[in-house]
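Blinded run. Sample ID left blank on purpose so nobody reads anything into the name before looking at the predicted structure. Input follows.
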Amino acid sequence: MPKQLSSSQRAEFERQLAILKRGAVDIIPEEEFEAKLAASIREQRPLKVKLGLDPSAPDIHLGHTVVIRKLKQFQELGHQVQLVIGDFTGRIGDPSGRSEVRKPLTEEQVKANARTYVEQYGKILDMERTQVYFNSQWLAPLTFEDVIRLAGTMTLARMLERDDFQKRFTQNLPISLHEFFYPLMQGYDSVALETDIEIGGTDQTFNLLVGRHLQRERNMPAQVIMTFPLLEGLDGVHKMSKSLGNYIGINDAPHEMYGKTMSVPDQLMLRYYELTTDISSEELQALAAGLADGSVHPRDAKMGLAYRLVCMYHGEEAAKEAEQHFRTVFQENALPEDIPEIIWTGEAKANIIDLLQATQLVPTRSEGRRMVEQGAVRVNQERVTDSRQELLLDKELVIQVGKRKFAKLVPAE
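Blinded prediction complete.
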């Protein structure tokens, strides 16, 4: 327990410590974190807490929200949030966890993605109280001499301590020189913002420690590092990722979000509750006990998770509708009432693949063929298994792909 705190300050210290440490994998070093938090409470000075994210894709998913929600907790406790959009670092790409050189994004791609990121962060953070930065503000003006001096603070041996660099080096896989600059640039963000605490996923530990190192090099108070788990995706194996298709996006439509959540593996359900919702520790413990003794059915617990998530990002009314939709389609095997209608003005007879594309139920013809071959396509609730099948458009047709995508084709009069 830090000294020099009054009884009321000690109580506030314990309260904040319990909230902020929940879910953390590592706090480096923990004693410095406690000292910084105690000083913040004693001096009534908010901590500057940083999260940096590169806009490498246009949307964020639940995996991203693990650290963003922790940032929200800091914010709600009165601390100052520093949200860094890596518009400069994003052009290089973080090599963390990569077995090959990442393809650089164009400046236009980064800017487009960054705009959607800020909008989506507002679903979690109070953006009026959030300081948003773009790291091109301080990285772009650096001269070549500045970059050389920055590189001079780290050795090649230290860089090769990173797991991904070490693996690629031992396997004789290429490592481009510019990749070594990524941790330096991310670390420099903390120097520019005089950050007290930096948070990130466990795959970011090395990068976060570089920020601490660079602050020390400049005789600045060194930031404390807090790392949090990487959320497994719907496959239950790999980290949640849009490229793997195992994600739940926070911009997903309510029905889609609810349905995807019902696909979360049972063994990961409590982890999703803890890392992606506001459930209290007491509620979580009671839920875990109920699942263990059989008094809570896993399906009911999962429906509760789906309801919470839709409510968080779309509101309670949307959550109620999504739950009813799920009950209708999945539990009663009935068609939903709100199927989008499309007026068909084409030929009176059409191939099933053409119809799948025309209704935008699949992105490509090859995907349409794959879904048909997998038995995932139904027309008027009858399974279609031949991608060459021709359908008459002389009456309404309800086309279904998988369990969540529907479209109703109505012949033009």
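Unblinding after everyone has recorded impressions. The CA atoms of residues 378 and 400 lie 5 Å apart.
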